[in-house]
Amino acid sequence: MRQDPEVSEEAGKSFTDLLAEELKQKEAEAEEKQRIADTKLLEAKKMASQYQKEADKCNSGMETCEKARERAEAALENQMKETALWELRARQRGWNKDAAKKARALF
User: Fold this and answer.
1) What is the pLDDT of residues 57-73, one digit of tens each?
2) Shortest CA distance to 65 belongs to which of 57, 53, 77?
3) Which residue spans adopt a coiled-coil conformation according to this UniProt entry (predicted)?
C-alpha cells in the first residue's frame, strides 16, 4: 500500500493541532494552580503577620505586667523595712506585742 502525501500531511497537522491544544490546556492548568498557590501564600503571609502582631502585643503586655510586679515587689519590700524600723523603735521605747494584745483586750 502506498501512502497518500496529502493524507499524511493532514494527519500530521491534526496530530500537531492536538498536541498544541493539549499543551495549551496544560499551561492553563499550571497557571491556575500557580494562581491558587500564590493566593494561598498571600493568605498565609497575612495570617502570619496578624499572629506576629498579636504575639508582639502579648509580649508587650507581659513586659508591662512584669515591670508592675517588680515595682509592687519593691514597694512591699520597702514597706516591710519601714514597718520593721517602726517596730524596732517602739520596742526600744518599751512596747511589746503581748502588752499591746492585753491592752486591746481591755478595751
Assistant:
1) 999 999 999 999 999 99
2) 57
3) 16-82
